[in-house]
Structures are given as C-alpha cells and as structure tokens.
Amino acid sequence: EAAETGMMGYSSFDQKTSGIHQRQRSRAFVVVDRASGKRVVYVNADLAMIFQSVRQGVMAQLKERYGSLYGEDNVLLSATHTHSGPGGYSHNVAYNLSVLGF
Q: Measured between alpha carbons, how far is 41 from 25 in angstroms, rounded to an integer?
C-alpha cells in the first residue's frame, strides 16, 4: 500500500506515508570478466538499509533462479539510505517496533 505505511527510521507510530510522491527503485548491474567468466552483481535499492533479512531473501531467490552462479562472494547489496521508504523488513525487533511488525 502506498498510504498509511510506516517509514523506516523515524521511530514514531504516527509517522506514516500519505501516498506516492516518487517511486522507489532498485538498480542492478552485472559485471562479467570475459576472460575468466567470473561475475559480480551490484544492487542499489531505495531503502534505508539492507538488513540480513533482505540479503537472505535475495540470495534465496538468486539460488532458485540461477543455481550456484551467484553466491556470498559475488553479490553486493546496498541502500540509498532514505528514511522515506518502508519499515518493518528487519529481523531485528528494534527496527520494526515503530511500524508494528515485520
């Protein structure tokens, strides 16, 4: 939902979104060394932080779709650190309290 969603990092129950001003995005770049075939994927997402919960989910989906092509050694996930994004996506309860859940 675009409205009435708790935002990440404000730690206030009444700090909620009111709609969409600008869409959030994620961008992925894959770089492959043609000589060795080695590759790396870099993803930047419009989120406050990349928690372990996000990394675990991404890694599981990559494994399901691509097998062993991507792993812990060649996947880099980063965030723009926006506090206007959604909250409640951490396994750490302290980050989820103000949005009332995971």
A: 16
In three-state secondary structure terms, 31 is strand
CA dist., res. 88 & res. 47, Å (int): 11
Q: Name the domain count of the chain.
A: 1
Please write the tens of the pLDDT for every residue from 75-95: 999 999 988 888 878 888 777
Residue type, 74: N
pLDDT in tens, 11-50: 777 777 788 888 889 999 999 999 999 999 999 999 989 9
Cβ atoms within 10 Å of 24's Cβ, excluding its own? 13
- As a whole number of angstroms, the distance between CA 74 and CA 21 comes to 34
